[in-house]
Amino acid sequence: MQPSHPTTFEDVGELADDIEQQAEQIRRERMSKRAKAQQEAERALTRSATTLSRVDDGPLVGNLIGEDHVNYVLMYNMLTGIRIAVSRCQAKIRKPLTDEDYTARHKYSFDIVGNELTPSAKYDFKFKDYAPWVFRELREDYFHLDPADYLLSLTAKYILSELGSPGKSGSFFYFSRDYRFIIKTIHHNEHKFLRRILKQYYEHVKSNPHTLISRFYGLHRVKLPHGRKIHFVIMNNLFPAHKDIHETYDLKGSTVGREYPEEKAAKNPRAVLKDLNWINRGKQLELGPEKRALLTEQLRRDSELLKDLGVMDYSLLVGIHNMRRGNRDNVRRNTLKVFSPDMPLINRKKTIGKGPQSPEAIAMRRIMREADPQRLDDTTVVLPEEDTGERQHFIFYQDEGGLRATDEANENMDTIYYLGVIDILTPYNFLKKCEHFWKGLSADRHKISPVPPPEYASRFFAFMKAVMRGGEGGGRFKAE
């Protein structure tokens, strides 16, 4: 059908002007609504942030700070990821383990707004939880950890940091607020190795509930935006929260280069001494026949596993508490600090969109940056005065969280040992073989640290037997 009158070029121009005016009006209305929405979001989130900052059961939005620390964002993300991942696993009904559970990986994505799977988080990051069902069973059935205690300890607003720099590996670790657990970063190769041996580790713990090998409670990964991936484990803290450790030794059975300078040790009560310090000081594990037999047998079983796994470089960590000295030196408090710092200002481009760039997300980040932090008082670090937790279930940790020295009549003496086999994630690979060859050129290749796993396990076990009361002592292990 033809129109009743023709459309002229003048009509078209007028129509175009009307459309443009309407479009401009729509744009103005949209801009006005968007501005109002963002203002309302800021007001709402200000109220929300004020409320959240008072919550004590998680690390989210906490304004309390301690010493500034370069790893704050990473630690915050670790604690947040643990809280959500472990809580989700715990909320499900227990099931028998399958082979797939040992290789399982559960992924979580966190941002400032949150989604149906994860709540709002202070920073944007991704989190992976490895073999959650396996570690849950280890924690609950074999390590006797209470799930609520575990989460409460690890996901507080602040944790404890030990003074000092990271170890040779570049890894760092921090203690949970009650000093029971350690969060330790590990290299990607160690992470892959732990996953590979997880089933053998699980079976060993199941068959040897009193094992001295490190207790792994969880394996996780954090990935920051445009950043590297950080793998870390949750472990037991071998040393107790309620006792000062007066001497610490890291014993491998190797004596080449295994000495901490005594002049430095005299000034540093927290120094980790080594094999030659132990031998030269004439130390021995003062254990009567009963405890000596139990410890020897467990060390034999543990070293057999480590040999089968093809690892080396592990050691027996020995902490010594002198009951006559007690806690009067306050070693723990003098070497710990509160860790929950504020963050420097972060400038972000204010783009409007969905997800992390939405008005709500932008408003929340502004609140975080402008929050007025309050410094934590040192008195916030409250360490328990008696043994707590799961240690009483295990033979070698049932005497005030450790193993008390006994005489030949099995009567108690005034020393408590805290013992554990640590650093078990170093396989004897090509690099270690090269290190064995290179160090063997200038020293006795049987007394250097990097030796093949069968030899390492045999030497390790022989050394530990030798340095117990009744043994021949560690002198024969010294290099000529």
TrEMBL record:
<protein>
    <recommendedName>
        <fullName>1-phosphatidylinositol-4-phosphate 5-kinase</fullName>
        <ecNumber>2.7.1.68</ecNumber>
    </recommendedName>
</protein>
<keyword id="KW-0597">Phosphoprotein</keyword>
<keyword id="KW-0808">Transferase</keyword>
<keyword id="KW-0067">ATP-binding</keyword>
<keyword id="KW-0175">Coiled coil</keyword>
<keyword id="KW-0547">Nucleotide-binding</keyword>
<dbReference type="GO" id="GO:0046854">
    <property type="term" value="P:phosphatidylinositol phosphate biosynthetic process"/>
</dbReference>
<feature type="domain" description="PIPK">
    <location>
        <begin position="66"/>
        <end position="468"/>
    </location>
</feature>
<dbReference type="InterPro" id="IPR002498">
    <property type="entry name" value="PInositol-4-P-4/5-kinase_core"/>
</dbReference>
<dbReference type="InterPro" id="IPR027483">
    <property type="entry name" value="PInositol-4-P-4/5-kinase_C_sf"/>
</dbReference>
<keyword id="KW-0418">Kinase</keyword>
<dbReference type="Pfam" id="PF01504">
    <property type="entry name" value="PIP5K"/>
</dbReference>
<dbReference type="InterPro" id="IPR023610">
    <property type="entry name" value="PInositol-4/5-P-5/4-kinase"/>
</dbReference>
<dbReference type="GO" id="GO:0016308">
    <property type="term" value="F:1-phosphatidylinositol-4-phosphate 5-kinase activity"/>
</dbReference>
<feature type="coiled-coil region">
    <location>
        <begin position="9"/>
        <end position="36"/>
    </location>
</feature>
<dbReference type="InterPro" id="IPR027484">
    <property type="entry name" value="PInositol-4-P-5-kinase_N"/>
</dbReference>
<dbReference type="GO" id="GO:0005886">
    <property type="term" value="C:plasma membrane"/>
</dbReference>
<dbReference type="GO" id="GO:0005524">
    <property type="term" value="F:ATP binding"/>
</dbReference>
